[in-house]
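Quick one:
INPUT:
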């Protein structure tokens, strides 16, 4: 089944999922590591996305709990965003059956460089929280639009969702990066659970492997979120830059490779 023998394969896979959870808890983008890792392990393609959603949902649950415990958001505000995230993700999952994924990749190539340049140029980006200056209604309106459309993208394709959410919440809702990352974890968790439910119904999940790797992902998310809460923007911002750059490089490389092939 796997490219590596027995226990060694599981140990290497668990280490990679742990690393993915560590990075994902701070900036998203864990799928850049876990999906290739599952493929190398030899997981059947039809079980790939569902199994990854199971393990990543377990890890994101830990990060969301730790971040939100240290950040204060109104319950009605969070409930509204959760509903919008679920709706956006479900709609995106439906639309992806009608739209070629390659079209979304071209949009990502246009969107990612400005995000990376913006993060690199704005040295004071995300240092302070001035979200209260918007007022409750404007803040909810802006956050709701961000959540719906990025969750829609997550349902369609997914890579980089956490990074896009964190940057958008910071830029347009005026949160500091720590609060923006906390909110992005909850939204990402909602989107992941909605997709996981669909995969479970379709029988497209290796439940045993997903649960085992989910434990490794939970450990990675625990230590990653702990570091982020301790160091704040000084560790989250470089992580966002790394994820944005890596995602762009992977998309370009995949397109070049397909073109050569």
């Amino acid at each position: 089944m796997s490219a590596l023998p027995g226990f060694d394969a599981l140990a290497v896979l668990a280490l990679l999922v742990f690393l993915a959870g560590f990075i994902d808890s701070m900036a998203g983008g864990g799928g850049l590591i876990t999906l290739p890792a599952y493929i190398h392990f030899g997981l059947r393609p039809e079980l790939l996305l569902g199994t990854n959603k199971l393990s990543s949902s377990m890890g994101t649950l830990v990060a969301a709990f730790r971040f939100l415990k240290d950040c204060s958001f109104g319950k009605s505000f969070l409930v509204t965003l959760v509903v919008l995230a679920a709706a956006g993700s479900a709609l995106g999952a439906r639309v992806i059956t009608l739209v070629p994924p390659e079209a979304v990749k071209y949009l990502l190539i246009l969107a990612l460089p400005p995000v990376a340049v913006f993060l690199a140029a704005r040295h004071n980006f995300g240092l302070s929280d001035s979200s209260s200056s918007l007022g409750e209604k404007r803040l909810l309106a802006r956050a709701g639009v961000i959540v719906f459309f990025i969750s829609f993208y997550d349902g369609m394709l997914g890579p980089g969702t956490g990074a896009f959410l964190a940057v958008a919440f910071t830029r347009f809702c005026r949160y500091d990066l720590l609060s923006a990352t906390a909110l992005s974890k909850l939204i990402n968790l909602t989107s992941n659970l909605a997709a996981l439910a669909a995969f479970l119904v379709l029988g497209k999940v290796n439940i045993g492997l997903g649960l085992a790797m989910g434990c490794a992902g939970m450990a990675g998310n625990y230590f990653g979120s702990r570091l982020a809460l301790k160091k704040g923007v000084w560790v989250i911002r470089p992580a966002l830059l790394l994820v944005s750059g890596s995602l762009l490089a992977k998309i370009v490389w995949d397109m070049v490779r397909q073109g050569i092939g």
